[in-house]
Design goal:
Layout lengths: L1 E6 L3 H12 L4 E7 L2 H11 L3 E5 L7 H10 L7 E6 L7 H7 L3 E4 L4 H12 L7 H13 L15 H10 L5 H8 L3 H15 L4 H10 L9
Parallel strand pairs: 1-2, 1-3, 3-4, 4-5
Helix pairs in contact: 2-3, 3-4, 7-8, 7-9, 8-9, 9-10
GO molecular function, one term: DNA binding
InterPro entries: CheY-like_superfamily (IPR011006), NreC/VraR/RcsB-like_REC (IPR058245), Sig_transdc_resp-reg_C-effctor (IPR016032), Sig_transdc_resp-reg_receiver (IPR001789), Tscrpt_reg_LuxR_C (IPR000792), WalR-like (IPR039420)
Protein name: DNA-binding response regulator
C-alpha cells in the first residue's frame, strides 16, 4: 500500500486529489496538511511513501519543507513530489535542488497523476524529457555555479555514462538499451552513482549531471 501525504493550502485542491487517490486499491491518503510546517509534523507522525507538496504556501513554503524532509534521516523513505500551477515556474529547479523527486502541474490528467504517484513511490524521478529540456533551458539562460570535478572522479566510466543518460530523461530500460547491458545492471550503475554522490534520488543526479558539466546543455 502506497501511503500519501497531501500538502496544499487550498482545501478544494486537496479534496480533489484525495477523491482520485481514494479510488485506488493500492494507495492510501494517510494525512493532509495546509502548510509546510504542518507537513513536517505529519511526515514524522505518519511516515508516508509519497508527499505531494504545493510549492507556494503560507507559514512554510513547499521548497523549505522539501529541504527539511530531504535532510532528515528519519524521513529518508519519503519521496517528495512538488505541485505547481505552472508548467515550469521559477521555483521548480530550486525544488529539485532541495530534494524533490519531481513535480506535477495541478491540471494533470487523472491517469498521469496516479501513474506519477506510483513512480515516485518506487523511488524513481518524475523527469520526463520535456522537463529535462526545460532544465537545460534554465542552464542556458540562467547558468548556475558548476560543481568541481572531484565528485565526477568518484564515478567509473560506465557510471558516468549511465548518469548522463539518466540526465536526458531515460529510464533504466532505455539506459540498458543504449549501453547494451541488462536493466538490472543499469539500475546498479545508477544506484552506485547515487551512493557515491550522496544523491537522494534520480532528480538530484540530473542536477549533478548539469552542474558538474557531465552533460552540457547543447548536447541534450
Amino acid at each position: 500500500m502506497i501511503r500519501v501525504l497531501l500538502v496544499d493550502d487550498q482545501p478544494l485542491i486537496r479534496s480533489g486529489f484525495r477523491a482520485l487517490l481514494d479510488l485506488e486499491d493500492d494507495i492510501e491518503v494517510v494525512a493532509e496538511a495546509g502548510d509546510g510546517r504542518e507537513a513536517l509534523t505529519l511526515a514524522h507522525e505518519r511516515l508516508p511513501d509519497v508527499a505531494l507538496i504545493d510549492i507556494q504556501m503560507p507559514v512554510m513554503d513547499g521548497i523549505e519543507a522539501t529541504r527539511r524532509i530531504a535532510a532528515d534521516p528519519a524521513l529518508t523513505g519519503v519521496h517528495v513530489v512538488m505541485l505547481t500551477n505552472y508548467g515550469m515556474d521559477e521555483y521548480v529547479f530550486e525544488a529539485l535542488r532541495a530534494g524533490a523527486a519531481g513535480f506535477l502541474v495541478k491540471d494533470i490528467v487523472p491517469e498521469d497523476f496516479l501513474h506519477a504517484v506510483r513512480v515516485a513511490a518506487r523511488g524513481d524521478a518524475l523527469l520526463a524529457p520535456s522537463l529535462t529540456r526545460k532544465l537545460i533551458h534554465r542552464y542556458v539562460t540562467q547558468p548556475l555555479p558548476t560543481a568541481t570535478g572531484a565528485a565526477l572522479a568518484e564515478l567509473t566510466g560506465r557510471e558516468r555514462e549511465a548518469v548522463a543518460l539518466a540526465a536526458q530523461g531515460l529510464s533504466n530500460d532505455q539506459i540498458a538499451d543504449r549501453m547494451v547491458i541488462s536493466p538490472m545492471t543499469a539500475k546498479t550503475h545508477i544506484n552506485r552513482a547515487m551512493t557515491k554522490l550522496h544523491a537522494r534520488d534520480r532528480a538530484q543526479l540530473v542536477v549533478f549531471a548539469y552542474e558538474s558539466g557531465l552533460v552540457a546543455p547543447r548536447n541534450a
